[in-house]
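Severity: low
Component: inverse-folding endpoint
Summary: output formatting inconsistent between runs
Steps to reproduce: submit the following structure tokens with default settings.
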């Protein structure tokens, strides 16, 4: 297997996520997360750990439509932590991730909230 591209800045994670999701690359998606990352997905549940995240995507990706790139909002960075977010193209809610700089300088997701909805809106 060839070496996969790493995120050299926090915003790269969003682009890499879309590229790997559209390639149906569950392993590649999981590699965007720290070993003990937590993802708030499927809705109302949490998926904990890179292995579980990979399994989730292995099951979900074959049934999902193509992902469209979303323009990231400004990233907030404090030392080795950053908060990334994007407004979904359909205008529903928001997406946010806490990411951490790794020892090699790359960035990985630690916490991923892929779907927020406004209070009072169906989730």
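Observed output (run 2 of 3):
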């Amino acid at each position: 297997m060839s070496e996969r591209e790493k995120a050299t800045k926090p915003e790269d994670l969003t682009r890499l996520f879309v590229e790997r999701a559209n390639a149906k690359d569950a392993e590649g998606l999981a590699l965007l997360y720290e070993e003990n990352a937590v993802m708030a997905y499927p809705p109302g549940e949490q998926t904990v750990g890179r292995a579980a995240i990979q399994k989730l995507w292995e099951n979900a990706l074959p049934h999902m439509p193509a992902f469209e790139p979303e323009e990231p909002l400004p990233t907030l960075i404090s030392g080795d932590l950053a908060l990334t977010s994007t407004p979904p193209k359909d205008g529903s809610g928001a997406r946010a991730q806490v990411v951490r700089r790794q020892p090699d300088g790359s960035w990985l997701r630690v916490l991923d909230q892929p779907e927020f909805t406004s209070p009072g809106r169906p989730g």
